[in-house]
Amino acid sequence: MRYILILFFGLVSFGQAFSQVQVGVYHSGLSSQVGVGTNIEKKFFGEIRFLATDRLELDFGAEAIGQYNFYQSEWYNLHGGLMIGYYGDGAVGLPFGATIKPISAFQRLGILMEATPYILSDQFFLRGNIGLRMRLGGD
Hints:
Outer membrane protein with beta-barrel domain, single chain, 1 helix
């Protein structure tokens, strides 16, 4: 837990020092995630996500995700990368997704659609996320 908090505050500090910060809320099946990361408009960006389980009896979960924008346009970004997570056991995955920017006058808001094949406890899973993300600060 201590290492996750250090990583979280380090990423937020890095994001504030070098670029805008983005926040997001994502939904996947029965669980949701809350994320904080660096500017998603940069070629490389990172994010820390925490499992927001409400009343479900799931283990605490956190992920560190590094991604690369393969294609960027005014309306959408295509990105993929590496996820390292902890959900009671270690997890590793390869997220691939699109962030759609539907409002031309307010492109800080994005809709994330993402698929992540990952391995947790020697089992293979495929997670689909959909959610909202927004850039804060800067121009």
